[in-house]
Design brief:
Number of strands: 2
Number of domains: 1
Structural class: mainly alpha
Order of helices and strands: HHHEEHHH
Radius of gyration: 20 Å
Helix content: 40-55%
Strand content: under 5%
Shape: elongated
Strand order of the largest sheet: 1-2
Length: 159
C-alpha cells in the first residue's frame, strides 16, 4: 500500500507559505545546488515561451533549481498540449463521427483532461497553483527565498 495523504511540501515552500513551527521542517532535507536553470534543447517556440514565464515565477519565489529541469519541461509541454487541445475543441464539436459513422466523444477532450491533470500535478509540486500563491507571504520569506545560495533559509523560523 502506498503512502497516505498529500506529499510533504519542501521546506522552502513551507517557509514561503508562512510556516513558523520549526518541528515541521526537515533539517535533513537535501538542498539542490542553486544554478541558473537552463532551458533544454529541442523545445518548440511555444514551449520556450511557457518555459521562460514559468522560470521567472519560480526564480521570484526562489524555487528554480537545475535539478528540476525535466519536471519543468514536462509541465511546459503539457501546458502547450492543453492549449492545442482547447484550440481544436473550439473549432470542432465535443462529438465527432467515429470509425463506423457513429457519434463518439472527441478524442481532444481526453487530451485536454489529461494535460489539465498533468499541469495541476506539476503546478502543485512547483508551488504554482492559485491556493499556493494565496498562502505565500513574500514580505516575510521573499528575501530569503530570492537568495537561495545565501543565508540560512531556516533562520527566524523557529520559536
Amino acid at each position: 500500500m502506498g503512502k497516505r495523504g498529500p506529499a510533504p511540501a519542501p521546506t522552502k515552500l513551507k517557509i514561503l507559505h508562512g510556516e513558523k513551527n520549526a518541528d515541521r521542517f526537515n533539517d535533513d532535507e537535501p538542498e539542490p545546488a542553486y544554478n541558473r536553470i537552463r532551458m533544454p534543447d529541442g523545445l518548440s517556440i511555444e514551449v520556450q515561451s511557457v518555459w521562460l514565464s514559468t522560470v521567472l515565477e519560480l526564480e521570484a519565489m526562489g524555487l528554480a533549481f537545475s535539478s528540476d529541469v525535466e519536471a519543468l519541461r514536462c509541465f511546459c509541454e503539457a501546458v502547450v498540449q492543453h492549449k492545442r487541445a482547447c484550440a481544436l475543441l473550439a473549432k470542432s464539436s465535443v462529438l465527432v463521427k467515429g470509425q463506423h459513422g457513429v457519434l463518439v466523444k472527441n478524442p481532444a477532450l481526453q487530451i485536454q483532461r489529461d494535460t489539465a491533470m498533468t499541469i495541476r500535478t506539476f503546478a502543485q509540486e512547483f508551488g504554482l497553483t492559485p491556493s499556493a500563491r494565496t498562502s505565500i507571504r513574500l514580505n516575510e520569506a521573499g528575501a530569503k527565498a530570492a537568495n537561495p545560495g545565501g543565508d540560512n533559509p531556516y533562520a527566524d523560523t523557529g520559536s
